[in-house]
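User: I've been trying to design a sequence by hand for this structure and keep getting stuck. Would you show me what you'd pick, starting by listing the structure so we're on the same page?

Assistant: Good idea, let's start from the same input. This is the structure you sent:
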């Protein structure tokens, strides 16, 4: 059996999905209108990774969870007031932009520096968790680039389940096309897991865990290093939200086959 894992979860923050987002051009590049005023949440995909990490650490004695987050520390502090009650972890904050208008390589570089600065981190026990996708940085490459920087070549994306076998190997359920899963077996850490939705519900709030986490979160935020993250050399020709398209026609007593035929023709167009 494993002697415990060092699980590093990479998670950013994003505007609450219930908010209306409006891209605007700022003096420093593209951003969101009133971005600092928008309520923020932990990135949904990364949140699943955190819950899975906490569950695995709880089942594996000697394990520890680190939450590495690149975000404006003022906004990150607000988010941590809620997230801290969900799972036990040690926060490793990096003060920087949470905008989606950044380059994946620059984000990965900042996360790499933060991870390498974790005292006592054992690379032989390292499990690098993160979201398979992102609500802001949906490039789908940040976690892969970070894994290569850390010289971790066993990488799995779209993970829904990770089980520790009696011999210490990891059995990983990974999404593939057609609604199927691919089952892989990895000898063990170090490994990169990009989580999809996982199979665990959101943990209930636990004030005791929250109080314990906040004792280390606040000092960590005060000491957070600043990282200048952007998209040097990248030009955004235009940025706009997807437009809603609705075409409604009310027809009485239409046959099922006729409805299906019209829908098929509309899709083909």
């Amino acid at each position: 059996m494993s002697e415990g894992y060092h699980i590093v979860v990479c998670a950013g923050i994003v505007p609450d999905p219930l908010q209306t987002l409006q891209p605007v051009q700022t003096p420093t590049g593209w951003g969101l209108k009133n971005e600092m005023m928008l309520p923020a949440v932990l990135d949904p995909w990364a949140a699943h990774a955190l819950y899975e990490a906490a569950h695995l650490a709880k089942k594996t004695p000697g394990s520890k969870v680190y939450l590495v987050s690149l975000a404006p520390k003022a906004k990150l502090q607000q988010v941590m007031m809620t997230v801290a009650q969900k799972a036990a972890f040690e926060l490793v904050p990096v003060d920087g932009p949470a905008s989606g208008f950044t380059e994946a390589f620059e984000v990965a570089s900042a996360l790499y520096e933060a991870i390498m600065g974790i005292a006592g981190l054992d690379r032989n026990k390292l499990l690098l968790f993160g979201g398979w996708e992102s609500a802001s940085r949906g490039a789908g490459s940040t976690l892969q680039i970070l894994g290569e920087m850390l010289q971790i070549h066993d990488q799995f994306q779209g993970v829904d389940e990770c089980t520790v076998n009696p011999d210490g190997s990891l059995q990983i359920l990974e999404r593939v096309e057609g609604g199927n899963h691919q089952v892989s077996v990895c000898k063990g850490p170090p490994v990169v897991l990009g989580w999809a939705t996982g199979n665990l519900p959101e943990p209930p709030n636990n004030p005791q865990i929250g109080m314990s986490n906040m004792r280390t979160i606040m000092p960590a935020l005060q000491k957070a290093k600043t990282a200048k993250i952007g998209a040097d050399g990248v030009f955004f020709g235009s940025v706009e939200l997807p437009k809603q398209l609705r075409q409604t026609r009310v027809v009485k007593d239409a046959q099922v086959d006729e409805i299906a035929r019209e829908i098929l023709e509309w899709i083909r167009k």
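That's my pick for every position. To get oriented when you compare it with your attempt: The chain has six helices and 13 strands. The mean pLDDT is 84.
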